[in-house]
Predict the structure.
Amino acid sequence: MKLTGFLLLVAGWGIVLASMSLLVSLTPRAIFVLAGLGVEAVGLLLVVRSHLVLEDETG
Amino acid sequence: MTNLPVPTLSEGASAVCVFCIFLVPLAAAGLALLNAGLGRSRSAAHTMIASLCILSVAAIAYFVCGFAVQGFTGQPIRILRLGGRQWDWIGAGPFFLRKFELDGSPASLAAGLSMLCAGLAALIPLGAAAERWRLRTICASTALLAGFTFPLFAHWVWGGGWLAQLGTNYGLGHGFIDVGGSSCIQVVGGLTALSIVWILGPRRGKYSSSTLPNAIPAHNAVFVIFGSMLCWAGWLGLNSAGAILFWGAASGQVVLVAVNTTLAAASSGLAALVVTGLRFGRPDASLTCDGWIGGLVASSAGCLFIKPAEAVVIGAIAGALVTYAVEWFEFGLKVDDPGGSISAHAVGGIWGLLAAGIFVRFPASTSVIASVQSGADSGQFIAQLIGIATLVGFVLPTTYGLNQLLNWFVPYRVSLEGERQGADLHELGADAYPEFVVHTEEFIQR
């Protein structure tokens, strides 16, 4: 779960970078940037949950 | 790819800048006192000596390779071709500052300021990982941060890198705005703190089987409050030097920067005071100081380009946000951060960057650098979002991965016995307050 979370963080950043390379006008670029941030949010959630599970297991 | 112009400084601006750079160590001293005061007394000396070690290692790591990675506008760079475009990714300066004239030029002043900023960024994780982080691994982790992570992001923001060029190359406002280091110092330091806390785990006894975490109170509120006041002076220098060096502010504009910095800190501290007063029945000194620091952090991003009233709003929101974030991290996410570093620096910094996207306006007379960048304010918020996405999507995984790798070779956490004894006795062999130690034989009735 932790690794998936970190991969999603990087993937979200990749979407943001791709929006700059591939798109020109402001609105689609903004949507892509928000989508990238959304993917990052899911990744962050997974990383946080993986650490919460770890804390519960170790007490 | 259009490169940003090389800034030129008048003699007066250079003199003001040098004075401001000399104020920055006060921020480091303030953070060290704050971190020591918020920890337990049995680790106070360890925290202070670790702070000194961090500043030393950071200065040397930055000298060895930090400035080579960071560079400055007009210095050699490495270009990456991606998606048919050129990206300014990393500086290509000389290692050990070889053949680099430290002569008062903008590049040399930037090198001097950034060397101190690297130490400041590296002090942030110490507040979060206090009492359970071994001294030698503190030094190793600092070398990573000051030699690679901080300078790389600082190149993107302050060294004319791709984030700074978002305005000229992609028409996104005036590029990613961060005058005083909300991103490259504060959020980078805060996210490194989060990574290290995840790697270390909480202090023994913090989270037991009961639902609520155990309170481990700060040992010296005077240190905490005095540290916060020192940070104020340091931040005045940090924000002003950043405004002059990286945004070409005239020496007179330092007044606006100082007023905005002070107002943001003031409203932030008061907001934290009010929020804790309303929630707990009386104000909380530690959280108020964390709020104060959060306001300083949030002020850094846009301090040159906002109005004083906007600084008050930014600070007030930062103060309330930091107060809730401290509680959320401790109770909800089980992140044991005794110094509140993650909340004050990472959360406060991200809010400051967002606020810059909302509030920043560029008057025609603002600065040499700003005036030559494309004038569209429309994409400024998107530029700030791209910077934040880079911090969360690149800096957090990188810093977590590098520190985890180091942790496999040299374990970060002190032994169980060491934690029970306290870091002072275990790692240094002496307590910070030896006269407080109760020797039982002195109390035997005769």
